[in-house]
Amino acid sequence: MKLLDGKTAIITGAASARGLGKATATLFAEHGAKIAVLDLDLDAAKAAAADLPGEGHIGLACNVTDKWACIDAAAAVLEAFGQADILVNNAGITQPLKLMQIEPENYDAVTDVNLRGTLYMSQAIIPHMRERKTGSIVNISSVSAQRGGGIFGGPHYSAAKAGVLGLTKAMARELAPDGIRSNAVCPGFIATDITGGKLTSDMMDMILEGIPMGRAGEASDVAGCCLFLASSLSAYVTGSEVDVNGGSLIH
Ligand code: NAD
């Protein structure tokens, strides 16, 4: 059964080949959705869109920390598709720093992409969703937000992703009367390129030791959860945080 026939989805940070955004875009496309891949680099976004199953997907350059870039991207999506049913705020960066190593530029970079970007891209598309009285917003947070880090990202990453949880819940409350749902996904450790070669084998052993299921997550594990939250299977779910962590945090 196709769950997203006739739907369109905007997915930020979806150009990274092994990333959660690309896996989510692929699964949504398999379920019949038209996808707008947004990422920093236009060519990479276009290439990722062309690589998705089915026809008619688009790739756009959008730095989510730039409010006007988000507004422009939303307008381009509406021009291309005529509607936007789903937004997945997936763009994110992380840094493996300890508390006292966080410099102002580290704080700004990590908080801006993860938290400010989630706010700006949501603000860019909410007026359209409000007009149509329908929409599903899925924000990618992290288990780091819930357990205070201890995976890879530093305290500034935990704080930014905890901010995403608060924003998700506040949006859910405010947008529910307009038929728009807002939920968060909290992945545990998923093997992608976000660690930028900085994941040591000691770190990996420590992480695996803390996962009852005994394996790192896969991007498709997160994509499945995003599909549930984006589709009408979750019609009465809003303001929730859904764990995809192999049991690494059971609470
Ligand atoms: P990734 O590095 O593979 O992909 C992230 C993408 O975001 C990249 O394509 C990058 O170009 C894009 N991006 C970065 N800054 C951007 C900006 N300012 N505007 C637009 N796009 C931007 O990482 P991933 O592991 O796929 O991570 C996806 C999301 O999942 C992130 O929000 C991350 O924090 C979150 N997450 C990942 C894990 C994990 O273990 N991989 C765990 C929990 C949460």
UniProtKB/TrEMBL annotation:
Q: Which InterPro entries did the record assign?
A: NAD(P)-bd_dom_sf (IPR036291), Sc_DH/Rdtase_CS (IPR020904), SDR_fam (IPR002347)
Q: Name one Pfam family in it.
A: adh_short_C2
Does the keyword section mention Nucleotide-binding? Answer: no
Identify the EC number(s).
Answer: 1.1.1.47
Listed A to Z, the keywords are: Oxidoreductase
User: Known Gene3D superfamilies for this protein?
Assistant: NAD(P)-binding Rossmann-like Domain (3.40.50.720)
What PROSITE patterns is this protein classified in?
A: ADH_SHORT
The molecular function terms in GO held by this entry are: glucose 1-dehydrogenase [NAD(P)+] activity
Q: Does the keyword Transport apply?
A: no
**Annotated PANTHER family:** BLL7886 PROTEIN, SHORT-CHAIN DEHYDROGENASES/REDUCTASES FAMILY MEMBER
The UniProt entry, under NCBIfam families, shows:
PRK07231.1 (NF005559)
Q: Which family does it belong to?
A: Belongs to the short-chain dehydrogenases/reductases (SDR) family.
Question: What protein is this chain from?
Answer: Glucose 1-dehydrogenase
Query: What organism does the UniProt record list as the source?
Result: Ponticoccus alexandrii
